[in-house]
Amino acid sequence: MLTFVGLGLYDERSITVEGRDALRGADRIFAEFYTSNLLGATVADLEAHHGVTIEVRDRDGVEGDPDPILDAAEAGDAAFLTAGDTMISTTHVDLRLRAAARGVETRVVHGVTAESAASGLTGLQNYRFGKAVTLPFPYAHGADSVPRSVTESVEDNRERGLHTLVYLDIKAERDEYMTADVAASMLAEEWDDVLGVVVARAGSPEPLVAADRLSALGGRTFGDPLHLLVIPGDLHHIEADALREFGDAPADLLDPV
Questions:
Q1: Are residues 162 and 93 part of one domain?
Q2: Closest of 152, 111, 154, 102 to residue 129, by C-alpha
Q3: Residue 7, domain extent
Q4: Is the pLDDT of residue 138 over 90?
Q5: Residues 78, 1: contact at Cβ < 8 Å?
Q6: Is residue 56 domain-shared with residue 119, that is, in the same domain?
Q7: Of 27, 142, 157, 181, which shows the fewest CB atoms inside 10 Å?
Q8: Of 109, 133, 155, which residue sits at a domain end?
Q9: Is the pLDDT of residue 143 over 80?
């Protein structure tokens, strides 16, 4: 059996009760933190809190050499841990398919996602989000500008009146996390006067929401990661009220439809 367990968004306590039970009942436990990370807990914190030993795998150890994980799942009960929800990344779907191809039974224990947290904290309604994008570090795609795939997706969402969730690049192996001010500055080159909403440390005891022009957000700091950025589309009046109340959005940027 291979059980995929989402750890939630912040620390060793963010996991669901079902996930905790699956984690503590596994014979071997694997984890990856290159697609996302828990900024409120280390691997040692997870191990101490749950009384387990966790084998951390890098990207190549999951995508290029998954056999140790699959072998453990064939021999007994193995758990595979990720931050957030465990099936958001294609990497994890691929691993589940590989397990199925070997006749290994799989189970998914979901965790809280950044997408649902962003909607909940900002008050932007989840069914009004369009295609999400990831904003990479410039060096990661070899150009100083925002990738065309990002700008086209944002523009397509805006034309349809939909919100865009912008995931910010993570280079876990370098302990490098793009911050919302950097992201806002990059996006302001395309949409200087457009409303943006920062979500920082979702899932932590003190998350932050800040709404303003992208150019203004680019000149502010938002504390420790992880950060997200949302570019809203058309606003329902309740969404506008929420951004004013919870994100201190300037009134002149709120034009509910």
A1: no
A2: 154
A3: 2-109
A4: no
A5: yes
A6: no
A7: 142
A8: 109
A9: no
- Number of folded domains in the chain? 2
Arithmetic mean of pLDDT, 75-81: 97
d(CA 116, CA 89): 15
Structure token digits, residue 168: 């910010």
Most confident segment among 31-40, 133-142, 168-177, 203-212: 203-212
Mark whether 228 and 166 lie in a shared domain: yes
CATH of the domain at 133: 3.30.950.10
Extract the tokens encoding 205: 């005891």
> Which pLDDT tens digit goes with each residue over 150-170?
999 999 999 999 999 999 999
Q: Which residue has the tokens 């904003």?
A: 135
Among the three residues 109, 124, 147, which one is the final residue of a domain in this structure? 109
121 and 93 share a domain?
no
Query: What local confidence, expressed as pLDDT, does residue 255 receive?
Result: 80
pLDDT at residue 257, as a whole number: 61
More confident residue, 163 or 192: 163
Distance between CA 124 and CA 119 in Å, rounded?
Answer: 5
Q: Which amino acid is present at 1?
A: M
Q: Which residues does 190 contact at the CB level (< 8 Å), separation at least 6? A: 146, 151, 154
